[in-house]
Batch of 2 targets.
Target 1
Amino acid sequence: MTSLKGKTALVTGSTSGIGLGIARALAGQGADIVLNGFGDAGEIEKLRKGLIDEFKVKAIYALADMSKPDEIYAMVKNALAELGRIDVLVNNAGIQHVAPIQDFPIDRWDAVIAINLSASFHTIRAALPDMLKRNWGRIINIASAHGLVASVQKVAYIAAKHGLVGLTKVVALETATTGVTCNAICPGWVLTPMVQKQVDARVSEKKIPLEKAKLDLLSEKQPSHEFVTPEQLAGLAVFLCSEAATQMRGAALSMDGGWTAQ
Ligand code: NAD
């Protein structure tokens, strides 16, 4: 158990998938939560109330678009005003676009870089001074196996995730003598809405059943042939928040069913 009671965690892109899994796990350790991300307002309100009821923590929601720096700075400012502190920052919001580079739309390149890379620069820039003031903080950047190795047709995503691993190392070095740590988690395939789209594309392109499409996707990259789950990733995030992880700094931690061992 890692008690995060009295601490606050801001998790970007936490209305779905991995971010939601991490927000729930951090709330489970007692952290107050700032939820962020897109989705149906009623559903998001249910998620927020669910955290409060289930884990007896405070939870607020910030509708900030991670592609817009002004909204990111306003989100951090409001979180500090409403909850008084940010101790854990999880940079998780992300999008994907799949196309060969010569057909890659310029606006998709800009959006992927903004949300998957630049947003983390802005959130850390905005939240770090508060962490340094108390000399304790945990910054966790959700990169990807694609932060370490490449695949075809994902030029913006892979450039952004490699960039995020580099950003993680710089922040870790700049905070190395403080109580703030910064690390990246590099998941393999996780069956979230982001990956479901890629599975569905295989179903229609290859005219194969859904289960075959999932195995097809997994067996190309992930030797375990099993998806990583948001709960497993959340377990690693909770560990990174523990005192045992104090000297983990600037690491890019794979949880990828063996993908990058190959
Ligand atoms: P998801 O689509 O389920 O969730 C993405 C979250 O980001 C959602 O809450 C969404 O609303 C939010 N988001 C998207 N654009 C946003 C914006 N402009 N502003 C604010 N929020 C925004 O995807 P996921 O699979 O849970 O992905 C979470 C992170 O994990 C991403 O950074 C992704 O690159 C990374 N990742 C996913 C996988 C995987 O296999 N699913 C693997 C490795 C890394």
Target 2
Amino acid sequence: MDNKNIKIAFFDTKPYDRPSFEKYGKANNVSFKFFEAKLNEDTAELAHGFDGVCAFVNDTVDAAVIDRLESLGVSVLALRCAGFNNVDMKHAYGKLHVLRVPAYSPYAVAEHTMALLLTSIRRIHKAYLRSRDFNFSLSGLVGFDLHGKTVGVIGTGRIGRAFIDICLGFGMKVLAYDKYPSPDLQNDGRVRYVELDTLFSESDVISLHCPLTDETYHVIDEKAIERFKKGVVLLNTSRGALVDAEALLAGIKSRKVGAACLDVYEEEADLFFEDNSGHILEDDTLARLISMPNVIVTSHQAFLTEEALENIAETTVNNLRQLFDTSSCPNELCYRGGVAEDCKSGKCF
Ligand code: NAI
């Protein structure tokens, strides 16, 4: 280990990012320069003189950005998130090491998902506003019990499983769908893996916890919604493009979808994380969704707990130290274009 100082350009910085990254960076000789700008073709230049860049979910790491970073001598992209759908992984092959934080407090996201569900079905968002205005009427606040209802969970990885545990605690029946079902969940006896069709038609609540891939893009589209039980509650705390927002809006207008809770939105990149309160919202679909009494939108905040922020900073710094100190990739962390085998065989360097 040579413990060389690693210089990282940190993009899309928010005030809540700095304390944990400064703490773990200082302790591990990783210096972060915090830029408020998002990473894109115009801002990639800021990475000049840095060993790597640290990016988040709404930074753009397409072919042009990757080429620019490579030409500046940047060798690593450290994503401070789990998903990497915003990175052109094929193009990154042979150019950039791509590190990510595969797991950080799955409870943060799972608990936010349940918070959204309870807020929606017990009308807490309405009651909160009413009582602040000394309006103590209960009209229009009738909810329903979760106990005994069926939840369909798509994606039974870390977050999906944490959410399933919470739902089981509420006495719900659990249906699950995963491309790679987990054997221990299959044997658990309390969770039934089913095909998507069955999950769609039997669930009272549907929650998305799979990654965004070509296969899962618009997994909730017009056809899926047609198969839903009338009045279903749809929860999406995973990635916006899992849901065709236009189809969802139509489903809400037709009363097929009883409620939707969205922490993510397909076109969130230019909106979420920013204060747009003084601006005219150009996105009519989002504006219409937000105007609905049975839609709750949070701006990609499911990860935002103290524990998750600590985990994210610690893992990112450890990933970087491991990469620079061992002269071989921390293979499971570095995809280098999605070809982990290359990392394992040391071809990364
Ligand atoms: P994970 O990798 O532990 O689990 C993902 C699961 O999805 C796996 O079981 C996998 O087999 C399954 N899967 C893969 N392809 C599938 C397909 N085509 N159909 C159905 N299932 C499929 O990931 P984790 O940690 O549970 O995260 C899940 C997602 O949550 C991430 O991909 C990310 O998009 C999102 N996320 C959202 C956050 C937020 O703040 N809103 C924060 C962190 C993650």
